[in-house]
Write a structure and sequence with these properties.
The structure is a homohexamer of 261-residue chains.
Chain A lengths: L1 E6 L7 H17 L5 E6 L3 E2 L5 H20 L4 E4 L7 H7 L4 E3 L1 H12 L3 E5 L5 H11 L5 E6 L11 H18 L4 E4 L2 H4 L4 H8 L3 E2 L1 H15 L12 H4 L10 E2 L1 H6 L1
Parallel strand pairs in A: 1-2, 1-4, 4-5, 6-7, 6-8, 8-9
Helix pairs in contact in A: 4-5, 4-9, 6-8
Chain lengths: 261, 261, 261, 261, 261, 261
Amino acid sequence: MKIVYVLPGPISRNEQGRLEMERRLEILRSYAAPATIVDIVDVEEGPASIESLYEEYLSIPSTVDLMLEMERKGYDAAILGCYGDPGLDAIREVTEKMVVVGPGEAGVMAAAMCGYRFSIITVTNSIVNPLHHLVEKAGVGKKLASVRAIETPVLELANDREGTIRKLVEEGRKAITEDRADTLVLGCMSMGFLNVAEEMTKQLGVPVINPGKISLKMAEALVGAGISHSKVAYLTPPKLSLGKVNSSAGLLVRKESSTSS
Amino acid sequence: MKIVYVLPGPISRNEQGRLEMERRLEILRSYAAPATIVDIVDVEEGPASIESLYEEYLSIPSTVDLMLEMERKGYDAAILGCYGDPGLDAIREVTEKMVVVGPGEAGVMAAAMCGYRFSIITVTNSIVNPLHHLVEKAGVGKKLASVRAIETPVLELANDREGTIRKLVEEGRKAITEDRADTLVLGCMSMGFLNVAEEMTKQLGVPVINPGKISLKMAEALVGAGISHSKVAYLTPPKLSLGKVNSSAGLLVRKESSTSS
Amino acid sequence: MKIVYVLPGPISRNEQGRLEMERRLEILRSYAAPATIVDIVDVEEGPASIESLYEEYLSIPSTVDLMLEMERKGYDAAILGCYGDPGLDAIREVTEKMVVVGPGEAGVMAAAMCGYRFSIITVTNSIVNPLHHLVEKAGVGKKLASVRAIETPVLELANDREGTIRKLVEEGRKAITEDRADTLVLGCMSMGFLNVAEEMTKQLGVPVINPGKISLKMAEALVGAGISHSKVAYLTPPKLSLGKVNSSAGLLVRKESSTSS
Amino acid sequence: MKIVYVLPGPISRNEQGRLEMERRLEILRSYAAPATIVDIVDVEEGPASIESLYEEYLSIPSTVDLMLEMERKGYDAAILGCYGDPGLDAIREVTEKMVVVGPGEAGVMAAAMCGYRFSIITVTNSIVNPLHHLVEKAGVGKKLASVRAIETPVLELANDREGTIRKLVEEGRKAITEDRADTLVLGCMSMGFLNVAEEMTKQLGVPVINPGKISLKMAEALVGAGISHSKVAYLTPPKLSLGKVNSSAGLLVRKESSTSS
Amino acid sequence: MKIVYVLPGPISRNEQGRLEMERRLEILRSYAAPATIVDIVDVEEGPASIESLYEEYLSIPSTVDLMLEMERKGYDAAILGCYGDPGLDAIREVTEKMVVVGPGEAGVMAAAMCGYRFSIITVTNSIVNPLHHLVEKAGVGKKLASVRAIETPVLELANDREGTIRKLVEEGRKAITEDRADTLVLGCMSMGFLNVAEEMTKQLGVPVINPGKISLKMAEALVGAGISHSKVAYLTPPKLSLGKVNSSAGLLVRKESSTSS
Amino acid sequence: MKIVYVLPGPISRNEQGRLEMERRLEILRSYAAPATIVDIVDVEEGPASIESLYEEYLSIPSTVDLMLEMERKGYDAAILGCYGDPGLDAIREVTEKMVVVGPGEAGVMAAAMCGYRFSIITVTNSIVNPLHHLVEKAGVGKKLASVRAIETPVLELANDREGTIRKLVEEGRKAITEDRADTLVLGCMSMGFLNVAEEMTKQLGVPVINPGKISLKMAEALVGAGISHSKVAYLTPPKLSLGKVNSSAGLLVRKESSTSS
């Protein structure tokens, strides 16, 4: 089974980013089952990090292109590397068979199987309302206790790992005592790769879902079960299915073609 | 009061598109109150028409840029020219005061004020599920009777106007008798500019909402009432509010800058 | 376009009431678009103010009569002058084409278009549960954060305008911080005519909907869009549509006719 | 235990109406437990029958007055004699301890205890949407399968009893097979007094709730259990609780007082 | 009318238990209407008290057997003596006509008829989530304000009656002020037989439902109204209805039969 | 990783049952990842098959005992071998760390990740309403399109495999065309072991979830992710956590101990 982790931000441009990609790949491989091959790629163009719906949308065009390339390369599953699942539905519209895992969806589904009510602990308030909608769209809104933010930007999470954990535990505790949550989900992929879930579970006594880890395991599970997204749900764009354009790329009328017209 | 209609597809490239823009502008101006100035613009890059979520996402980056330009130019309100409201929330994140009307949202709100249950009649099945989500997000899912499609591509709606009306009336009648709808909404802007709502009302005996018309009137209403979107709801992306980038454009790390690094 | 504001309480009986009506008319005219003619009328019989469902019901019979008269007089729209929308559905049952705007419905619809979650700030606790039901009936219950009361009777709101604003800001702040509201609605028409929404927005940083202002603008919008309530939703009472009585008034078997029988 | 059945229409004006009242009283007494005393009264003014929200509202002012009189007379419970429960909440606002049973509420609560999904079979389409709201307000909307009408006016139900039963069985069967109902409720008091529920149960094999009968038994149950409506839910109108008016009647500013001012 | 109270725990084994059964029987008889005969029975095997779903399930097999025996003995109604309604649906599957009252269901239905929002005050946190599900299943989840526990085991409730009342009043007050409840339900049958509801109502000013009392009155009401559970809702197990086994007992393949095979 | 499949019915008593267990074990092992060890066990006492809630409850006591034994034996996960998930919550109350997978829960979660709306196709009508509740409890009721039954008893599914497939395809097609489902779930474990999902997918063009296969893959995923049920959600029964009884078995007061007392 071949799984690829697709980063919707162009982080491989500098050395630091390339090291981070290698670090994440190693972590993902440590999660994988023996027969699972894991790779990692990033887009050429996109936001530096995602803390708003605008940045989510900025990431989608390049990510869809890269996802299509991954399907052509024969990957069985791809993980969309942002907790907000930007463009998950569009990727499913244009791909055919490759399993596409959204960490947001996978994370809350796992949380829903662990208890009666879960809370998401995320980075900034700017993403709290969008995450409420993500949960509604995933279909498990009835089990959502709350979405809470630690008000720390994505790119600063790792600067003070201890401070980050302290804030995560603090908001997690409020979720349990004030919002009646019994299960927590880390609502940001960079939080996932900090490897803090186990520490939080120890301090809080509830399951804490690491979105990176659960995404890999859900990808393995769905591929293993032989199921993928329904093409009756995520219909191929009509211009493609009717043959009016040759490829997904053909759906965009680009600026430069304007000059040539 | 100055209102601009923003087309999320690059239709002004050829003569036919420029004529269609002029035609739409004239219609919009015929809807407007005496003191309202209406203009129309289109993006430089985007999909030819929108019949899938993927095409919605493709339209967003250029549309947000254009919306920001319209706010700088002093427009009081802008209408997002696609019924699916692509990027409506992102536009509200980056704009400050300009009223931004999504025809999907405006249309279903008006429908909800007309009766107990409404149905949306749209172009193709590929957009039926996304429209269900649009209604949920708008907050009036409780009043939605159904979303039905006439299975005619956007770009072919006007080719056979009589045939299109016949199909619209047919699906509208099913919505009333089978789904218990008492109000209808045309779920596509190109349907709106066909001027078929009155004809449908005559044949079906229920209000039929023209999304273009209602968007203009809602824009006038909200500007007139002095209210716009809440910046506590649609928070400015943190990198912007914290001054880490200078402008919305700075949120995208572009491909070409890669070569220079 | 002709719009009439219909007061469901008999306030024109004394000088003070007549002055208040004139004051409100002037305010409404200041909201109106250039081509809009606004008038104001009150019922001959009804409650002094409305702070309970019982008082709502007491206002309905006379108000429906007056609304029918207004439709006969050729008004394009009427605004029902109480935030609780008493008898809105009944008025729609007996009128044919006149747009009938309920400020409760119009207010929460506008609020729903401004953000993710809104709160209503109203006068007394006695009306809090009924306003929850109004929002459910309007169809936007999913976006309701809370209904809060300042515990000040309607007729005393204007006695201490500064004190009223202070209480409104206080409850509004609680709505934002404790109930996660991002938009506020003033849940009482007398609050609307105090002209406090702008002051509240300045202090709280969120849109505050003035129900009087939004009702007028929504009336203009719906008339301008050429739509009114669905007669398939609000069916004419069968005794009227079947011709068993000649007029709405004929639906009530009055006490005095008893003596004559 | 003393229970009174309050008719919200003035039917005792003629002989036929008085005989019908006696007939209903006899039926109600046949339902009652040994120690229960049952009486019947009607209002002096109100609609001839109730088939619209407008007629519901017309019935409320006189009915509330009569209910207050019944509480003063020492009745333990009163049954509001219309399935739509017109003014039920207002009656609870102004009464103190008397149990007030709404047949709509009582009927759907009993239905909810009989199965997973119930349907209401009522008289005319004009009351179908209002009954949906009644069920939502009662709190058991989740169990509602459908509301169906036999399209027969209230006052004609008894003219062709066999025809009425035939239509009731027909719609009931559709509710079971098409809407997946397992329990039925007769959505009109006049249907209740036709004594058709047993016949329907025999033909359809599901419980059929007679709203008159269940109202009487629920009245006995609540009085017997020593509970009544919560005055924290149905607050006394502030003008009354603060002593600004002396009685409920004082809440209405009547037309005639206008002439004297 | 003959009603039996069925204890799902084997409490008659010792003198103390037998005295408690007699005490409860006397209380139930004091609630009953003149013509109602009340009896009490307990199972031979089951949990000592019920504070978890596991204990609920342990009680079901013996309780179903005993319920079937009660139906054969001609009882018109049976009350399932545990607030969690363990096995209520299964009992309805195998019985034919006997009314089976679940105190959980009966209690929340009565609460729903008293106000807008109710809270359940129960014994231990271990049963809080299950009671949320009970309310959802009963169909009145929309009216649930909260479920709160006093954290006192069932078997210790009566040891310190004053202390228990103090805790009940304390949690009840929080339900009213923090959760906006206007009606309370005692979520445990042993609480019901402590006779504390009246005392709580006096201190808190809201209706407090005693589940034992309301169960008896609802049993009388449903038997009196001639309705019972729908056999279209609670279908007889197919092996029974198709004659593949002779009796409910035949549905269990017992361990001892294993040794004989 | 060690996973055990726990059959809640005593099928190993005769040769045919033992062969069926071996067959199922082989199938489960064919699903498993390389490093996963799979075993199968059955209870000593329980129903022959499960087609009613009563039979679900009959299966629980022995199944909980066996699950506890499996946890003591060191299994990482156990699969509850009935689609209705009988006693899933109780098993989680008494176990500590072992992942317990309910096929009902696992199946609908996977379905929810494949599309917008799913339908369950199950054996008999007697289990349709309970499956609606299972989905609500799992938290994904919003995505449920319908539950349909082929009206074939569990024990006869395999007698006519072709006939069973025909009926499954027929109901599946109705779910897609009439109920707007885009994904199907087989709502019975015996259906799962017929290996018909692939055939159905070929004929219907939508994902069809095999509950046995997905349960195994979800078990691997959750164990691999290091998460299990929250003990704050599924609290240990108080008598156990407070040390009042020594073991889960001690929670049942058995019949035989009665004779010895």
